[in-house]
Design brief:
Layout: E1 2-8, H1 14-25, E2 28-31, H2 32-41, H3 45-55, H4 62-73, E3 81-85, H5 91-98, E4 105-112, H6 115-123, E5 125-127, E6 134-136, H7 163-186, E7 190-194, H8 199-211
Parallel strand pairs: 1-3, 1-4, 2-3, 4-7
Antiparallel strand pairs: 5-6
Helix pairs in contact: 2-3, 4-5
The structure holds adenosine monophosphate.
């Protein structure tokens, strides 16, 4: 299995890029945030465990997340090209990919972006609860007000995209990020990209990295 992990703050564009790469170029994409939100919607035990942590902008405990990703990767074939978006978020999660889950991360891509942009990006974000498409009130407005371009469902704001919870999520990100950068830096398989650019521009660079 060829695993690439996307590291970076909430709002840095990891999800948008991973989604497009999986739709257009055959990568298998796992977003742990989306997996948890689906589990909450379906009232599965993992969702019930995760909900209060997510609502407050805190991380869901490592044990829960490692089991979730372990189950997701288990059925995949050895030649799958996998993008992990939102996992690992802590060093123990990164270690679990090697030890417990017994896979190797081929590349870690660090989405670098100034803090000042993240709050605007996250609080203005609107998502489609049906197909998961993401919009932004200013940067990517839907063609019709509050309506998904793809499936016409009414867009919503994620409960954890309110300003108070966004600030907490960024604080949590900062407390864990350096450890992850050091972990993958020590293995010399981390590549930093500037994520404060147009989606197409970032994608072009990502594709050239992923092909090599
Ligand atoms: P995201 O959609 O990636 O922004 O994730 C939304 C929320 O899900 C995060 O704020 C965490 O509460 C939780 N979450 C997602 N992935 C992880 C992870 N790998 N470890 C812990 N919590 C996570």
């Amino acid at each position: 299995m060829n695993i690439t992990v996307f590291l970076g703050a909430p709002g840095s564009g990891k999800g948008t890029q991973a989604k497009q790469l999986s739709e257009n170029f055959g990568f298998v994409h796992f977003s742990t945030g989306d997996m948890l939100r689906t589990s909450i919607k379906e009232m599965k035990p993992v969702g019930l465990k995760a909900k209060s942590f997510m609502d407050q902008g805190n991380l869901v405990p490592d044990g829960v997340m490692i089991e979730l990703i372990e189950e997701a990767l288990d059925p995949l074939s050895d030649n799958a090209d996998v993008l992990l978006d939102g996992f690992p978020r802590t060093v123990p999660q990164a270690e679990a990919l090697d030890s417990k889950i017994k896979t190797t991360v081929a590349k870690a891509i660090n989405f670098n972006i100034p803090d000042s942009i993240l709050i605007t990006r996250l609080t203005g974000r609107r998502i489609c609860p049906n197909c998961g498409e993401s919009f932004h009130l200013v940067f990517i407005p839907p063609l019709k007000l509050n309506t998904c371009n793809r499936c016409s469902s009414t867009l919503i704001q994620r409960t954890d995209d309110s300003e108070a919870v966004v600030l907490r999520r960024l604080e949590v990100f900062k407390s864990q990020n350096q450890g992850l950068l050091d972990y993958f830096g020590n293995r010399k398989n981390i590549i930093t990209i500037e994520a404060d650019r147009a989606v197409a521009c970032v994608q072009k660079e990502l594709l050239s990295i992923l092909k090599h």
